[in-house]
Amino acid sequence: MRLKVSDLSFAYYDKNIIEDICLNVSRGDFVGIIGPNGSGKSTVLKNLYRALNPDSGAAELDGEDLYQMSYKKSAAKLGVVGQENFVPFDFKVEEIVAMGRSPHKKLFDGDSARDKEIVMQSLAQIGMQDMAKRNYLHLSGGEKQRVLLARVLAQQTDFLILDEPTNHLDIYYQLQIFDLVKSLGVTVLSAIHDLNIAALYCNRLYVLKEGRISRTGTPEEILTPEIIYEVYGIRADVRLHPVTGKISITFLPGSLNLAQQ
């Protein structure tokens, strides 16, 4: 087991945001967390990549207590791509990607020839090697997100946490990023907004509703018309796609009106 989370809870100003979260991620899994806006998906992940500290609960990463690890050690084990791409100062693209090498260095170490090689390889993987000298702040939102993925690739970790990383990208780059992540063969835990994306790439799903895990299972078990209606209040047609062999979801026009009848 790569990651075992038990009874994780977090409150903000005495309001419970997530409660008693339990989930397991095995080596090589591509696990998705789905649920409505405000259900706590990002909060779960932030507690796991330690941007937030849980009020209670436990998490073990590769058999070790995640919260007793040094931040440098956990950063070497977990790569993170979040929703936000704000950087307060302007850096060149290659400098942003080079930050992914930090967990592998001592405090005052400079970039070695090997570090520079890894940075350029990471940019090549996302098709941006020709933009290495560009200023990050001058990029589009989609380009920025691809650079942040390259930074994680440069980190060379085999466990990725993705917090809805493609929400503001067009469909070409959504598929490009998920195809790339899938091809790496690493372990992935991702919050995913698009249910069809979740069906295409995940082997297991957790459904988060009102801060609690309500269901878990394969996409075929979870992405049924009944559960989609229960969680989202939307009517949907669900069937296996003849080409992909994966679940394909069509949301029905007027389903909000139908739900009220």
Describe the structure.
The chain has helices spanning 41-48, 71-77, 93-98, 113-125, 141-155, 171-183, 195-201, 219-222, 225-232, 255-260, and strands at 3-12, 15-25, 30-34, 56-61, 64-65, 79-81, 159-163, 187-191, 204-209, 212-217, 236-240, 247-251. The protein contains 10 helices and 12 strands. Strand 4 (56-61) and strand 5 (64-65) form a beta hairpin. With 261 residues, it is α/β, with parallel strands linked by helices.
Q: What is the topology?
A:
Elements: E1 3-12, E2 15-25, E3 30-34, H1 41-48, E4 56-61, E5 64-65, H2 71-77, E6 79-81, H3 93-98, H4 113-125, H5 141-155, E7 159-163, H6 171-183, E8 187-191, H7 195-201, E9 204-209, E10 212-217, H8 219-222, H9 225-232, E11 236-240, E12 247-251, H10 255-260
Parallel strand pairs: 3-8, 3-9, 6-7, 7-8
Antiparallel strand pairs: 1-2, 1-4, 4-5, 9-10, 11-12
